[in-house]
Amino acid sequence: MKKVSILGSTGSIGLQALDVARKHKLKIQAIAANSSYKVLEEQAREFSPKYVCIYNEKYYNDLKTSLADTDITVLSGMDGLCRIASDKDSDIVLNSVVGMVGLLPTLTAIRSGIDVALANKETLVAGGNIVMSEAKRNNVNIFPVDSEHSAIFQCLQGNDMNRINKIILTASGGPFFNKKKSDLQNVTVEQALNHPNWSMGSKITIDSSTLMNKGLEFIEAKWLFDLEPDQIEIVVHRQSVLHSAVEFKDFSVIGQMGVPDMRIPIQYALLYPHRTECPTRPLSLTDYGTLTFEKPDYETFDCLTTCIDAIRKGGAYPCIVNAANEEAVGMFLNKKISFLKIGELVKESMEHFDHTDISSYEDVISIDNASREFVRSKI
After folding, report:
1. Of 39, 71, 248, 322, which residue is the least packed, with the fewest Cβ within 10 Å?
2. CA torsion angle for 186, 372, 203, 222 (degrees, to 10)?
């Protein structure tokens, strides 16, 4: 039985991972959340983990008191996340926290020799070179949880990487598919959070509406599969049934399909290489009838364009645009800036900074902070 630790257990990915754990009776070694301490307590009582961590330290005493009648060790803050990530009793750490907070726990798990199921985009976007180098050095597997990267990973099974022409990343197009910038001047937070296919947290849902999410996945794919930017194609696929595909040297294209349910890629990452029944419904192609594929609108959705430019330029630029976006999305969710201002700030941030390389975690944090400060200075 695999022992699993989940960072971000009260979020969308974490909750679905616990569904998988229930289905297959996986041992939950540890769980962690940002501030939802009451949900965390409920999860702790159901799964009896060794550790529980509340990242927001102001809820630590409440959680510790509520679990005082158990043998569970209650942790808090970044130290708590890293203690969980380095627990060698775990077989795999699922990192589904949101934002840059996920980078250090990922590195900690890798340096402890523990496999990582990765659902935290910022880990690879901001620190891809460091993370992949550490994974290779420590002989650790990084299993992608994003549906698109999981699809590519599945398509590559039994195939040689040197036989690839390109990968095809599919995008739903978000709630504003076929809209132009003139149509998006007065977009509300509620409209941007209304995703047509997926149920996700607020930050990633906004990223999907700006197509920033696909730009971040473009950068992630470069690191996960050791590709050049020219080997990555983005295709808008509104039905979210073909989750991504790989084109090989003979021009054969192998794709992975399924209903839009994150429990499929979560289960594949946690149970790899085994396939077994998943707590979702099967795919019926006849129910869909028609699947469509179109080119993205790079002019309207400039977050996507900026991300691709950033990874082409290399160095710290992916970290810069990621931090700028995270800051700008927070401002939009708090109704301090307009929807279109997100993309403007991300692009301005990349253009503001000179090229610099990243060689350490400290470099990432320094550049991340500088980019965030730049965004705040523009408001």
Report:
1. 71
2. 110
Residue closest to 128 by CA, chosen among 359, 306, 371, 349: 359
3-state secondary structure of 211: coil
Per the prediction, the chain carries an average pLDDT of: 95
Paired tokens of 105: 């726990």
pLDDT above 70 (res 249): yes
Q: Report whether the peptide linkage leading into residue 273 is cis, meaning its omega lies within 30 degrees of zero.
A: yes
CA separation for the pair 36, 210 (Å, rounded):
27
pLDDT, residue 194, reads 84
| Nearest CA among 332, 333, 335 for reference residue 344 | 332
E strand or H helix at 303: helix 302-313
pLDDT tens digit sequence for 223-233: 999 999 999 99
Q: Is the dihedral of CA 193, 194, 195, 200 positive or negative?
A: positive
- For 208-236, b where at least 16 C-beta lie within 10 A, e where not — what string? bbbbbbbbbbbbbbbbbbebeeeebbbbb
107-125 as b/e, with b when 16 or more CB fall inside 10 Å?
A: bbbbebebbbbbbbbbbbb
| Positions of E strands within 125-199 | 142-144, 164-171
Q: Which two tokens stand for residue 276?
A: 């077994």
Helix (H, G, I), strand (E, B) or coil at 53: strand
Strand runs labelled E in 41-163: 51-54, 73-76, 92-95, 115-118, 142-144
Which residues, at least 6 apart from 170, have a Cβ–Cβ distance to it below 8 Å? 148, 151, 234, 235, 236, 237, 240, 242, 243, 244, 245, 293
